[in-house]
Structure formats: C-alpha cells, structure tokens
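Collaborator request, handled under Task 6.
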Amino acid sequence: MVLVLLRRVLPAGLLLASLTWLACSPDSDIAGPTSVGEPNLAVTAGETHSWTTESGVTVTMRTLGALVGDGKSLAFGINDNDVVVGQAEGPDYSVAFQWTLAGGMTRIGVDGDGWTFTVADDINKNGVIVGSGLYLKEFGVGFRWDGESMQPLYSGADGPADPEVAYYDNTALGNRRNRGVLEAVVWESNSSEADPVFGSGERIHDANDNGDLVGVADHRAFMWMNYPSHLGEETQIAFDQLSNTLQGSAEGVNSHTQVVGYMWSPSDNRAFIWEKGTPTTGLPGLGGDHPTKALDINDHELIVGESVPTPDGKAHAVVWICREPVDLHPPEEVYANLKSSTANAINNNGLMTGIIYTWDRHSSAVVWTLGDGSGAGSCEPPTPEQQLDELKGEISNLADSGALSDDEANSMTKKVDNALKKIGQGKTGSAINKLSALINQINEFASSGNLTPDRNLTPDQAEPLLELAQGAIDGLRGG
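Structure tokens returned to the collaborator:
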C-alpha cells in the first residue's frame, strides 16, 4: 500500500530533493553568557547525505552545522521562505539561530543586547521570530525578533513566558505558568505584556492564518476557531480520543484546518489527524503499534513527526505521505553512530526540519527533502486518466523486461486505450467494462498455472497493474 500511495505523488515530483547547497557564511557573530572567542567566528559547514528508503523514496538530509567548532544545534521551526530557526549550543553559549540556504547559520540577536541562553521556536512568513531566554539575568522571558532587535515578552505572572507561535500579523501566541498552572496567552504586536486568551489549563502549540489555534485544553487535544473572537461552543472543538488513550495534544494545523498531534496512555503515544466531518484518525507507525507522534502538517497534507520502529528502539524522524509513514532516519551505512531523530516542522515547499542525536550525545539540526525536486506534490487522489496513463507505462516496462510478450502487452494496452476513449466520450460504464476485462486478463497472465516460457508475469509484477486498473474503476464510480 505504501508503494501505491507514493506512486500517486512521486511521479509528479514530490518536494525539493536536489538543492545546490551553498557554503555557510563565515562572518557570524556569536555570544553567550560570556564571550566565546574572537568577535567573528567561522560557521561550521554541514554535510549532505542521500539514500533510498524501503518504500522507494529518495531522501536527502543536510546537517545545518554549528556556530562554533563542533557545537550542537537543534531545529524547531521553518517558514515558507525556507528559513529554519532553533538553538545552537557549545561549552560556553546557548543561543537562538536562524539558517538559510544562502547565508548558513547565524545568531539571532547581537552582542551586548542583554540576552543569553536563548532558543527560537517559530518564524512567520514576515521573518518575525519568537522564542525565549534569559534577559538581563531574568529567567523565562520571551522574545520577538524582527530582524533588528529583540523585544522582550513578559509573562505578567510568577512563572516563565513561552511564546510558541509567530502569528501572521506578528502577534506572538504561547503559554505561561501562573501560580503553577499553565495558561494560553497572547502578546499583541505592539505589546510586551501577556494577556490570557482562554483560561487556566489551556496551551497553544500552533495556528494557521485563518484564526484556527490548536493545543491542549482539559488534558485533551483541542482547537479554538475564529481567533480572536473564538466565541461559542461551535468554535471550540475537543478531539475525540483514539481508543485506549487518555489524554492528547494538538501540535499542528494547516490552512485547510487539518489538525495533527498525538494522544497517549501511560505506556504509549499515538499520532492522529483530524479534519472537518471526520472522526479523529490514528496514523500508522513504522513499527505497527509502537509509539508515534505527529508534530506538524503542511497544506499538501504532508505530516512530520517521529515513530519508533521496534519495541525497544529509539525514535525515528518520519514523514507521512498520504497518511503512510516514510522513514527519514538515515541507515547505518549512510550516517553511523546515530541514536534517534525527530522531524519538528515542515513548510509548504516540502522542506522538513528537525534534529538527529548520536550515541555520544551530540545533536545536529537538519533539513530533509524528498523525491526528484520537480514539484511540491500532494495527496489528492489521481484521476482515472492519470492512473491509466501510468498503467500504460507499467505495461511497457514489463514488456521491455520480458515479463510480458509483445502480443500480451499490445493486447493490454489496447484495452487501456479503449477505456480512455470511452472516458473521453463520457461513456463511464463502457470504460469500466473494458477495465474489468483487463483485470481478468492480468490475473490470467499472472496465474501460476498458466506460466509458460512466453508468459512469465509474476503475481508481484501484476500487483501494481491491478491496483492502477482498480483505482481507475473506483474513480469512475466516484469512490
């Protein structure tokens, strides 16, 4: 099934697999709680690794490098301009960074601005970044970076501020701890003070440009619609729990109001997706029923997060393509000594970002791309015509390999062409009859009892032909 779903996307060119990765800028200014060397320090360049997964998908992973030497880095957010944000760490510093293809990794903030131990969580389409850190020795202050200055964002309570979302209008959305209780808050674009949004016990994790905010309320995955009004029960949705789970958290929402996150029991995490008019649906993992988390979704319904492939294994970064998981964790022969990985965010160009961890406790921010780089892809089902065109290509390939004789291939192709002709004439029933006859023919050719030196199509070779023919029939029937 994974191969069938991938076939829907990859021929159209899924995402941005082959970028010309440029060298990182050598003039980044770094500072932590104290100076960490010369005022201008070289940025460590990253490495690129590519491989093909068991699903047949090409994955390219680029490590984003470090600000100083062999320092660590972690990536948490990305916008549609392919700017990644996160945190860079070393023995004497821990600072928020932004990374671009052309400019490499640079510090957010400047020396002497009063900020130390900063981390960037999100960036919007305007390039405004939100995060938190230590400001003038005060712990737990949020910030909003506009490219020139770091505006402090205060919690207005006895606990720290934690901005998590750079909203499209430069408002910061996030959370604070007030008398030991978490609550969702907003920092308006012209304000440094937090205002409660909903009430005690709520948390905000993501928002789209349509006013849909997602997070947690009463320990359940939750969505508030029509922000900033969000009035009335019809605009507040608590997602139904997956079976055998007790609590949940909504982590991402796209412009189509598709929501992803995870729900959990004391012993397990289970990724989910929700959309209007459907119940909460679990997402499969790399290892069956082993733990999964969905952390972000783009407008093409590509979902990223993590999945544990074995009962006693470590998490692997994963992307769900048409709701089927593809492993982003590089194999041992590609990247040795790797312990675990997670994908935290994805943009509408298909660029994914996250973190890889080695067994010696080193972490590196990374970006992943998939496919051949010729398009963004989506999970919209292919049309019957598209599936039949692909079916003709599969028949031609089997003929070239000798699995089908020329006569067999010509006979099958003729049925496909006749079906396409009937579709063009609006004669859906006749097209279905032609394709049903084709399915019978494929089954006959693949029957082990009918194998001859001139007829050696195997059941495995026949499977994609049958799936494409049946998919076209289902599409013609409106299924």
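The cover message to the collaborator said: "Residues 1-43 have pLDDT under 50 and may be disordered. DSSP finds five helices and 29 strands in the chain. Please let us know whether this matches your experimental observations."
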